């Protein structure tokens, strides 16, 4: 079963625009992570936000977390063609350190 | 150093056959995870090793799936009597200690298994 659900499923933008992806989840979490995946292969960890944090930044990435709405967003600013990939949110809940992944958002950035 | 490696990168087999998928974690990482990813889905947890022992195998779908990590490093995922529904990308990840939520998992490139 999948805890997080990303929205939209697919996003197509022009280079230079911002890309926003959302993740909603069902149960209380310890933390939420965002991953990137190119070409259906290995995932790369982007950023982790703890349940007591509201916003984190890493380079062109900005992640927010609203635990009252059980949702998170990933913003990529000034997108580049190289940002084309699938982006997944993953949540950890309770005493488990096993992340549960959503279905992902497929982002295409046109040069 | 080298990242997580997985072999083979692609495996095509026939229904009913036995397959083994190998994962070489980052040197020194005590935690190792196996996931399965079907087309259009996120990775689905299968099993987690802490050292040589399986700390959590709750994600294994049935008894045709088995994994070992005899020396606490390389791991092998074994699938008996393969079925067409087993076709997926099998991902392996390792982390330095696996005991905390801030322990980043590093993923390998995956093995694409196709069962004909």
Query: Most extensive interface: pair and counts?
Result: A-B, 24 and 30 residues
Mean pLDDT of chain A: 91
- Mean pLDDT across all amino acids of chain B: 93
Largest sheet of chain A: 6 strands, mixed
Question: How many strands, what sense, and barrel or not for the largest sheet of chain B?
Answer: 7 strands, mixed
The total strand number of chain B stands at 11
End-to-end separation of chain B: 37 Å
Low-confidence stretches of chain A: none
- The helix/strand series of chain B, from N terminus to C terminus, equals EEEEEEEEEEE
Strand content bin of chain B: over 45%
Structural class of chain B: mainly beta
Which percent range describes the beta-strand content of chain A? over 45%
Helical run tally of chain A: 0
**Rg of chain A, Cα atoms, Å:** 13 Å
**What is Rg of chain B?**
13 Å
Distance between the termini of chain A: 36 Å
What's the count of strands of chain A?
11
Order of helices and strands of chain A: EEEEEEEEEEE
General form of chain B: globular
- The helix count of chain B comes to 0
Structure overview:
The complex is a heterodimer of chains A (111) and B (116). Chain A has 111 residues and is mostly beta strands. Helix content of chain A is 0%, strand content 55%. Chain A contains no helices and eleven strands. Chain A has strands at residues 5-7, 10-14, 19-24, 31-37, 43-50, 55-58, 61-66, 71-76, 85-92, 100-101, 105-110. In chain A, strands 2, 4, 5, 9, 10 and 11 form a six-stranded mixed sheet that branches. In chain A, strands 1-3-8-7-6 form a five-stranded antiparallel sheet, with no helix packed on it. The termini of chain A are far apart. The model of chain A has no long low-confidence stretch (mean pLDDT 91). With 116 residues, chain B is mostly beta strands. Chain B is built from no helices and eleven strands. Chain B has strands at residues 5-7, 10-13, 19-24, 31-37, 44-50, 53-56, 65-68, 75-79, 88-95, 106-107, 111-115. In chain B, the strands form two sheets. In chain B, strands 2, 4, 5, 6, 9, 10 and 11 form a seven-stranded mixed sheet that branches. In chain B, strands 1-3-8-7 form a four-stranded antiparallel sheet, with no helix packed on it. Chain B starts with a strand and ends with a strand. The mean pLDDT of chain B is 93. The chains are: A mainly beta (111), B mainly beta (116). Chain A binds chain B through residues 2, 4, 30-31, 40-45, 48, 50, 88, 90, 92, 96-104, and chain B through 4, 33, 35, 37, 39-45, 48, 56, 59, 89, 91, 93, 98-110.
């Amino acid at each position: 079963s999948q805890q997080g659900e990303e929205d939209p499923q697919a996003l197509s933008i022009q280079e230079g625009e911002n890309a926003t992806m959302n993740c909603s989840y069902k149960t209380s979490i310890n933390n939420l992570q965002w991953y990137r995946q190119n070409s259906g292969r290995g995932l790369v960890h982007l950023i982790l936000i703890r349940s007591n944090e509201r916003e984190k930044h890493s380079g062109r990435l900005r992640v927010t977390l609203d635990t009252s709405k059980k949702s998170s967003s990933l913003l990529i600013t000034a997108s580049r063609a190289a940002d084309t990939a699938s982006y997944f949110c993953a949540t950890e809940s309770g005493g488990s350190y096993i992340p549960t992944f959503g279905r992902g958002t497929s982002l295409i950035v046109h040069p | 150093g080298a990242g997580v490696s997985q072999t083979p990168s692609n495996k095509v087999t026939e229904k009913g056959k036995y397959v083994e998928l190998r994962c070489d974690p980052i040197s020194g990482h005590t935690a190792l995870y196996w996931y399965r990813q079907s087309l259009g889905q996120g990775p689905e947890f299968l099993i987690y090793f802490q050292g040589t022992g399986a700390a959590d195998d709750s994600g294994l779908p049935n008894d045709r799936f088995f994994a070992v990590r005899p020396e606490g490093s390389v791991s092998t995922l074994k699938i008996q009597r393969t079925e067409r529904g087993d076709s997926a990308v099998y991902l392996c990840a390792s982390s330095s200690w696996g005991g905390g939520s801030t322990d980043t998992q590093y993923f390998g490139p995956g093995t694409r298994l196709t069962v004909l």
